[in-house]
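Next up, a specimen:

>
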Amino acid sequence: MAAFLGLFRRDLSLALRQGGDTGLVIGFFVLAVVLFPFGVGPEPEVLQRIGAGIIWVAALLAALLSLDRLFEADYQDGELDLLALSSLPLELAVLAKCAAHWVATGLPLALTSPFLALLVDLDPGSIATLFASLLIGTPTLSLIGSVAAALSLGARRQGVVLSLLVLPLYIPPLIFGAGAVEASAVGSGARAYLLILSAVSLAALALCPWASAAALRQALE
């Protein structure tokens, strides 16, 4: 546990000290949501109907921006080999790095979303549901992204390969996250969608570290 927490603090401090990844992710997220009303028109009815989807798609694309650096730096300087040889299981090392990635990128996306929801005229109830769905769903983005980052490690055009691998896997969180907000807006209740989204996150928590660790071992051979 001490090694796990140490790796988590190290990755989080590096991400926050540099600040580039977090700033880039939030900047892209804000700009993407701000630009959508210019493309689809400023009508409140249109924005309310597609607002949740806009914010969720922008969050998915923003989360992609820092995934290629999840393991790349450690792979290039040899620290990934040390992690694989250390007493800390590689699966727990992957989980620690995913947790640090979520705190540095996914959590800021969730915290920023209520302010952006005002731009697309979501009602207060839908804004609360949007925040809850992103808070529950963004860990899944980091966990699934770790698998794609590990599989594409060392590829010549890693960013392109990673995007092709991860975007189809992001569809379930997108469907249930945006669906929860839409259900809240029409008054049918978002509880079922949020429970399914929680189940997806728990499944990713159980499966993705093992898949990422297996891919990393293959890349290190």
Remarks:
- The chain has a mean pLDDT of 84.
- The first helix runs from residue 2 to 18.
- The chain has ten helices and no strands.
- Residues 2-220 form one domain.
